[in-house]
Amino acid sequence: xxxxxxxxxxxxxxxxxxxxxxxxxxxxxxxxxxxxxxxxxxxxxxxxxxxxxxxxxxxxxxxxxxxxxxxxxxxxxxxxxxxxxxxxxxxxxxxxxxxxxxxxxxxxxxxxxxxxxxxxxxxxxxxxxxxxxxxxxxxxxxxxxxxxxxxxxxxxxxxxxxxxxxxxxxxxxxxxxxxxxxxxxxxxxxxxxxxxxxxxxxxxxxxxxxxxxxxxxxxxxxxxxxxxxxxxxxxxxxxxxxxxxxxxxxxxxxxxxxxxxxxxxxxxxxxxxxxxxxxxxxxxxxxxxxxxxxxxxxxxxxxxxxxxxxxxxxxxxxxxxxxxxxxxxxxxxxxxxxxxxxxxxxxxxxxxxxxxxxxxxxxxxxxxxxxxxxxxxxxxxxxxxxxxxxxxxxxx
Amino acid sequence: xxxxxxxxxxxxxxxxxxxxxxxxxxxxxxxxxxxxxxxxxxxxxxxxxxxxxxxxxxxxxxxxxxxxxxxxxxxxxxxxxxxxxxxxxxxxxxxxxxxxxxxxxxxxxxxxxxxxxxxxxxxxxxxxxxxxxxxxxxxxxxxxxxxxxxxxxxxxxxxxxxxxxxxxxxxxxxxxxxxxxxxxxxxxxxxxxxxxxxxxxxxxxxxxxxxxxxxxxxxxxxxxxxxxxxxxxxxxxxxxxxxxxxxxxxxxxxxxxxxxxxxxxxxxxxxxxxxxxxxxxxxxxxxxxxxxxxxxxxxxxxxxxxxxxxxxxxxxxxxxxxxxxxxxxxxxxxxxxxxxxxxxxxxxxxxxxxxxxxxxxxxxxxxxxxxxxxxxxxxx
Lengths: 396, 380
Known about the structure:
The structure holds 2 protein chains of 2 kinds.
Chain A lengths: L16 H24 L1 H32 L8 H8 L5 H4 L1 H5 L1 H4 L5 H6 L1 H6 L5 H32 L3 H29 L11 H26 L9 H32 L2 H9 L5 H19 L3 H5 L1 H23 L16 H18 L12 H5 L4
Helix pairs in contact in A: 1-2, 1-17, 2-3, 2-9, 2-10, 2-11, 2-16, 2-17, 3-17, 9-10, 10-11, 11-12, 11-16, 12-14, 14-16
Chain B lengths: L6 E8 L2 H14 L4 E4 L7 H4 L7 H27 L12 H28 L13 H6 L4 E6 L7 H11 L3 E6 L2 H5 L7 H24 L51 H7 L8 H19 L22 H5 L2 H10 L13 H18 L8
Antiparallel strand pairs in B: 1-3, 1-4, 2-3
């Protein structure tokens, strides 16, 4: 068979400036609230900053994971969406900025930083070779350097291919993907333990890294789906996105909704059954006072609602339904993180007021801004990718 | 025997998937409805071209799955918290989290088995084991490298010449006719043949025999009997380990079992009557326990109302009524001594009743006494 180079007759289209303007408004509003709330109550803002930065990290890092996965698996259908994941993964550069409020206040959010309490506490002093401030910041630097490095590798090669059509670049990215995967597994576990789990340093749960991973992958898939449906609505791709593409996105969201529930339930059931006080207290804290309703809400919102939303085959092929499910899943991921973090700020019951609004607005704004900025001057399809034609013609 | 053959369908074979898709389009346009396509591998988009309805199998899976969910939950609720409640690991009787894995498994199990069976019966039409297309050259080709289409004679538009012409026009490589095999058609489905039934019975016999042998015999034979013969002392057995040769050990001197109180008034019932005080109040819960235990342990001799009217029909000397002035004036501690140690021919009930239960029985006896000898002010 002769190799015929496929060149797409591709006309670059620009995302309407409305999206960027909305991003600017959200960012400005969010930033304003965050700054004011930081002045009024730095501790509370620090806790919110953990939620916000973990949320953006979820989308950014797991988009990077999706890119690597696509190269590694030689996936075809998702090639048309790869630019979306590339743009989304750019937010990992903004995450450290969002994290500033809690990084400046680690003394008030992480009590393992108080060396005197640690010395008196058998469990904490046992964990102190890992949980100490110096090592914490060393790990932080290490993680972000790795993520940034691989971000540059993947996106640079992908962009280069747009003009050179060099197939070797795909192979090269696949190789780097293989290197990235184990590093990713380690670093996301570290991130989950450091930022979220160490809020309650006495706790033990070996599955926590996977818990954060499962929810985060859902968030990244939802963000990708939302962007894909929006862009297809506005006819920005210049090609027709088929129901088979939508079905694949929907099936993944559905699968990982179940995966999240599976992991969340496994974590709960083992702890509930073994009934060891050094493990159960974590769930008891979330069963105290009005937190009980947030906990019950988590099951309904994060599992039952999306499960019903995208259970049937036609619903997975319906872009409108998918867009709704995507927005809902993004909301529930934020809700999940709120459930993980906030009981440490207010033990007795739900804490929710205007302080909590700053970070969600900021996250939406940053996602829109970063996405539109990256999309400017970039092809919205990886036109040089050797798998693109097959991806456009993708058939289930 | 005369062979009479009925036409089942006319078939055509093509070389490429594009040709078959094209053929389907034409057949569809001509208006045929009773036709089928056979390909060596799934050809994308054929189902849409053939205007097939989406499969209903999913609904069956849903119904079977829900049946599994409900069965599992209902059965665990009924057996674990209704019919025979057992405390396991200090969890509630209806321990939902512990039931979820089982519920999940049963849901998946019933959904998959149910779906497969539905497919066998509704789509493959069991117990029909044969189809006219089976064992034909046509079937051999389409399961190898050809793409085939077969228009059935049962179609209302079917006309031999028209179909043949259509296939020729489409450029079919081979056109053939498929006939019903009369012999096959008249045959009873194979599963009702005696041979098959005997085969099934034999299989069942062998399988149940083998499981009976493994579970009831083999597990007690030499290398499999690890759980039966263990290197340990069982009750009443001779111990090679302890110097005195007894397998059962006495508690360490001076120790008391948890929850047990040593009885220190042995042989001194009057002293017990003076010193012991009933720690309970005659509330509903205590009286309920007392009534239950009294009816079990005391009433056979003392009668249901402690009037000394034994239900033993003279097989045992009738005990005195417990409504005598003597017993009514006794302190609770004095009665406690009788239950704990026995009195003359009445045996001790210390083994059957815990100390708390004895006190509850006494309170119930007091209630019976009060019922027989009510006070003046009880009537008001």
